[in-house]
Write a structure and sequence with these properties.
There is one protein chain. The model has no long low-confidence stretch (mean pLDDT 91). The chain has a 6-stranded mixed β-sheet with strand order 2-5-4-3-1-6. It is 33% helix and 27% strand. It has a single domain, classed as Archaeosine Trna-guanine Transglycosylase, Chain: A, domain 4. The longest helix is centred in the last third of the chain and has 18 residues. The chain is of the alpha+beta class. The protein is globular. The protein contains 5 helices and 6 strands, in the order βαββαααβββα.
Length: 166
């Protein structure tokens, strides 16, 4: 399975079903990922304060209230290092946190999409959050190591069964 490393809190927003588009400067189909393929969502290790501030400004007010509260308490209210430590206890870093299907590739912003900023929007659906599977990430699309792949597939299967009520 291919994987894509995404900084937090964007990876969290994707696997929680809030953010349904991932923005990249490159088209995924040019690098071997086809519409309809599944990919692992990997939360990168880097803490980027700008990403947290950007997510807070981008999120609709009624979306992800627990994440908005976390940003308010950990990013805007305490020194940077203390905020980083608090955030790291609430969201995963350096782990595969979900699986999603590439539903479409867009080169123009839909009118109703708060998270689209292009130039390429990867439309994601059939998103499943899984228990974090620790793993080192990489830039671009990359292949999951065999042991990580097995753990991700097991987590994905369990998440799919739960969503189907089984």
């Amino acid at each position: 399975m291919r994987a894509l490393t995404i900084l937090q809190p964007w990876a969290h927003l994707i696997v929680r079903g809030c953010k349904r588009v991932e923005n990249r400067t490159w088209e995924p189909t040019a690098r071997g990922l086809a519409v309809g393929d599944y990919l692992a969502i990997h939360a990168g290790m880097r803490f980027d304060l700008g990403c947290w501030e950007g997510a807070y400004e981008t999120m609709p007010d009624d979306e992800a209230p627990e994440l908005r509260a976390l940003v308010e308490s950990a990013v805007f209210s305490v020194p940077r290092q203390a905020g980083r430590e608090l955030v790291a206890t609430r969201v995963a870093y350096g782990a595969v946190v979900g699986v999603a299907r590439l539903a479409a590739v867009e080169d123009e912003a839909p009118e109703d999409e708060a998270y689209w900023c292009g130039p390429w929007g990867w439309r994601l659906d059939d998103v499943r959050a899984i228990d974090p599977v620790p793993c080192r990430g990489a830039q671009g699309l990359w292949w999951l190591p065999t042991d990580v792949h097995a753990a991700v597939r097991a987590g994905w299967k369990a998440a799919t069964e739960v969503s189907r009520g089984g």
